[in-house]
Amino acid sequence: MPNETERVTIRLTSTDLAALDAFVQSHQYMNRSDVIRDAIRDFIRSRAKEVQAGVDAHKMLIESAQQAQTLKAMRETFLAKMDELEELKRQLQ
Fold this sequence. Notes:
Blueprint: H1 14-25, H2 32-92
């Protein structure tokens, strides 16, 4: 069962419309709507890859920021322990 469709109205230049009609007249497509639907699907597929790459890059940035925060906290803990160790050394002398 095909997906339900909705009617959309667009404005095209006469040059673009002639190009659509050429595809239809060459029997590559049944009608203008088929040409436009195919072009939209291609556009969505190509942009989906770009969007996913952006999402992946954003996730990596978030993970890197979290790792940086973890490392900062570990450094602060380490420095505090070093201070404690120095204090113990002084007390033992």
